[in-house]
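Give me the 3D structure for Exopolysaccharide synthesis protein ExoD.
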Amino acid sequence: MSNLRSDWIIATLLEELSDIALATEQVSLGRLIDTLGSRGFGPLLVILSAFLILPVGMVPGMPGIVGVFLILIGSRMAVGSTHLWFPSRLRKVELPSHLLIASISRAQPWVLRLRPMIAPRATILIDSPVMLKIIAVILIVTGAINILIGFIPGLPFLMSMHVLLIGIGLSSRDGLIGLLGYLVVLPEMILIWRLLL
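Predicted structure for Exopolysaccharide synthesis protein ExoD (197 residues):
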């Protein structure tokens, strides 16, 4: 697997997750959370959204699990907490390492392409108190939708795009990427509404 270690937190985390997956046949969500959580909410949101885009999303019930995580993260952000807490039952959920490795392999080329476009800028759009509250609401609503209708093929993928962009924005303090995430929320909701009618 190619070496992506760099100054970008997302690239570094992919390498760390790859090392974990290569060392065992099953990886618990608790282990992943412990690896990601020390870096804050941003990287965790990136990985959770990637779960719905990449092969690891094929694990039964994954949209609902991601939905619960999004609600928990949004709730913590809403009260201004930076401490991550998740129920022990969720921490014990295990993912097949081969799916995690396949997901990382697919993500790596995109990380390399994205890196030159990411930089700290317009930070007020991504880490100001007001925007963090707005992000919290977005995550809670997104999580609830994933739990309620995440079983419908294709919908979790649609609902993951803004979470991915917001996660990248938070991870890199890139307000423009975060703004893009906010802007795609409404089109996503409209498209999902039309699909359900």
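Strands lie at 26-28, 94-96. Let me know if you want a second pass.
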